[in-house]
Specification:
Blueprint: E1 2-8, H1 19-42, H2 45-74, E2 77-83, E3 86-92, E4 98-103, E5 107-113, E6 123-128, E7 131-135, H3 141-158
Antiparallel strand pairs: 1-2, 2-3, 3-4, 5-6, 6-7
Length: 159
Amino acid sequence: MAVLATYKAHVTPKYDTFLPFRVAVACIAAVVFIGGAVLTTYLNWRVEVLLLYLFVLCFVVNAVVYIDTYMKWHCTEETVSVQHEMLVVERRKCIFGRRKEIPLSAIKKVETYDDGVGQRSATLRVVYSNTSYRFGLCLSDADRQALGRKIMELAGRYV
């Protein structure tokens, strides 16, 4: 196993790490109370309870996705390595951790992907077998280019 890069998300002290959790709880509480009041006024209590549970379930799912997105940018650790002619990208310390394996022989190109939101959102995108995968959340431009060159050198070696 050859580790190409290990990098951590930027943890900045000006961000409150529990803010997303508090926002999610506040949204759920607001929906429960407001939804309960509205539904109690207009509906039978059995239908009200069912719809209330559905609203809460939707907001819980949205809250978990929001917290995971926040954790990706502030807590996540990613490791890029080569194992058995596969490029392996592992993401840890987030709710939806992931391990992605990409055959080096299938890699067509590695490019910087910027979705236009800002410098913070630039990532590496590996294009392979009619699909692509993004990683490298908090890398600087120089580190991103160096990692891209390493991956392309390894992919060229296995083609």
